[in-house]
Every structure is written in C-alpha cells, then in structure tokens.
Amino acid sequence: MAEDKATQDDLTHFGYRQVPLGEKASRVAEVFHSVAGRYDLMNDLMSFGVHRLWKRIAVAHCSLRPGDRVLDLAGGTGDLAALMAPKVGAQGQVVLADINDSMLRVGRDRLLDRGVVGNVGYVQADAEKLPFPDEYFSHITIAFGLRNVSRKEQALAAMYRVLKPGGRLLVLEFSRPVLPGLDKLYDLYSFAVLPAMGRLVTNDADSYRYLAESIRMHPDQATLLQMMQAQGFEGCRYFNLSGGIVALHEGFKY
C-alpha cells in the first residue's frame, strides 16, 4: 500500500494523461518549443484578439508606479512586460522569466524590436524554484502559465517568498465558464476547432489538444483562490472575464 501511494504521489497530469512528475516539465517544454515562433499569431487567432484585452486588464489591476520592481513569470513572448515597462519607468524594473528558452528568446527579440529596453531583464527560471532573494518584487504577474506548472502549491509558495510585504500577485489564467450554455460551446471550440487551427498554422495539432486538456485540469476559480490563501496570500479575490473562460486572481502579501 505504501509503495502504491508513493507511486501515485509521483504522478501528475499532462493534459488528460498521467505522467511521472519529473517528465511533465520536459513535455511542456516540447509543446512550447514547437509553437514559440507562431505563439502570438495563434493567440490572436484562438481568442479573436481578446487575449490582448485580458492582459491589459491584468496590468491595470497591478496599479504600477515608477520605481516598482515586477516579476513577469512565465512571461513568454513579453506581452505583459511590454505594457508594464513604461509604467515602472527608468527607476523601475521588469524581469521577464520563463522556464522555456525558446519562448524567452522570442520574448526578448520582440521587446527589442519594439524598443522596450533599459529596464527589462530576462531570466530562465522554474516557477517552483525562483532564483531571486526574499521580498524582492513589489508585483508578480503570471499569465496563462500556472496551469503548466507541476507543483502549483510550491510555485505559489515561491512567489510569496520573493514578494515584498504589501506586494501583489496577479494570476491570469483560463478557468471555468459561468454563463449558462457557454461550457458546451467552449468544449466544442476547444476540442474540435483549436487542434485543427494548430495543425493549419503551426503544423502541430497535439500541442493545442494539450492546451484544451490542460485548461480542464487546472483548478477552478474557487479552488485556485483557496490555494493562494493556503500559501499565505491575503485579500484574495478573482474576476471572471469573458464569462469565466478566463479569470484574474489577485492576492496580497501583508
């Protein structure tokens, strides 16, 4: 019985499949290596461009001021970093961190092309083992990245550690539709349209099938709120966007 429990504890989900805990990070890395070059294009197509509005809403909730130091975790191709860098100004700093080097390179190149330089740094980092000092950042954002983390509680604890007292965490992530009937339409779109779109645009249907499955395996709004509270975050709340297809969670370190 003890051996069975240990084996079960060493498994995690990769979409709907159970995989050894140590394998999930490499499998997720393969997904993002595959799609990095066309990641922004696919985001625009999949969300009809609405992902840009979701990200602007998240940045607005940060209430950033000049001199703030921000960690943009799982920052990918730099959409949030590009919005936050002007707000923190020359005295502030935005650190774009991602575990995937392909995404990090694309993000750096995109920001350089847009002239976003001087107050943005780049770090390849695992959300579960953040390589930053205690109480270093005034704000942390993670957009559409938490669902890919194997040990979400460990990642939330790491974020709490590196956040300053009075600091704010914002988690923007796909969640559970709350409008009547929206869930059925969303399932049809996710499991029929997205993989076909991925095949046409990136020649990779499997990565977008994983995307749809990973969203369903991610904790719902109330569960994620409780997970944040369990790691010490206070004043936690969430806002449903687009009928709950996406939710923005907010928590503070007091």
Low-confidence stretches: 1-8
> What is the structural class?
alpha/beta
Question: What value does the Rg take, in angstroms?
Answer: 18 Å
| Largest beta sheet: strand ordering | 5-4-3-6-7-9-8
Return the domain count. Answer: 1
Overall outline: globular
If helices are DSSP runs of H or I spanning 4 or more residues, what is the number of helices? 10
**Main pleated sheet:** 7 strands, mixed
The pLDDT mean sits at: 89
CATH topology: Rossmann fold
* Overall helicity: 40-55%
H-E string: HEEHHHEHEHEEHEHHHEE
Walkthrough of the structure:
This protein has 254 residues and is an alpha/beta fold. The protein has one domain (25-178, 210-253): Rossmann fold. Helices cover 48% and strands 23% of the residues. It has ten helices and nine strands. It has helices at 2-9, 21-35, 39-47, 50-62, 79-88, 101-113, 152-162, 182-202, 205-217, 221-230; strands at residues 11-14, 17-20, 69-73, 93-98, 120-124, 137-143, 163-174, 234-241, 246-253. The strands form two sheets. Strands 5-4-3-6-7-9-8 form a seven-stranded mixed β-sheet, with helices on both faces. Strands 1-2 form a two-stranded antiparallel sheet. Strand 6 (137-143), helix 7 (152-162) and strand 7 form a beta-alpha-beta unit. The longest helix is centred in the C-terminal third of the chain and has 21 residues, at 182-202. The termini are far apart.
List the helices and strands and how they pair.
Elements: H1 2-9, E1 11-14, E2 17-20, H2 21-35, H3 39-47, H4 50-62, E3 69-73, H5 79-88, E4 93-98, H6 101-113, E5 120-124, E6 137-143, H7 152-162, E7 163-174, H8 182-202, H9 205-217, H10 221-230, E8 234-241, E9 246-253
Parallel strand pairs: 3-4, 3-6, 4-5, 6-7
Antiparallel strand pairs: 1-2, 7-9, 8-9
